[in-house]
User: Fold this.
Amino acid sequence: MIFVDSCVLLDIFNDDAEWKSWSVEQITQALPQGLCINALVYAEISGSFATPQDVSAAVKHGRLEIKDIPMEAAYLAAGAFKRYRRNKGEFKTALPDFFIGAHAQVLACPILTRDPQRFKTYFPDVQLITPITNS
Assistant:
């Protein structure tokens, strides 16, 4: 199972000129292993669609399994976010990244992302699939 970060899906859904090709290629390669997201990724991608039905159709079409966030992941996310803020982290809206990282850690699955910095720093045991690792 591979956890798909919202940036990869948004590249595809928003027809990003720079990243769509890479993102489609990575999703295609990862599909046999299974793809998953959680409610936070679902929320982050929802702004690209007109209705909840459109979001659900895109998730189903992409064969993305929606995983519930376990309490263990929520606890890990809170701890990582606390360390981030203590390290003078700039973004107060970074919490979704910590939930994604913690959730992937609990599931023991890699994250497909092109924005690896917080994942590498706060979840170093989670394997990342990024443009750098696949170049």
The mean pLDDT is 92. The domain at 2-129 is CATH 3.40.50.1010 (Rossmann fold).
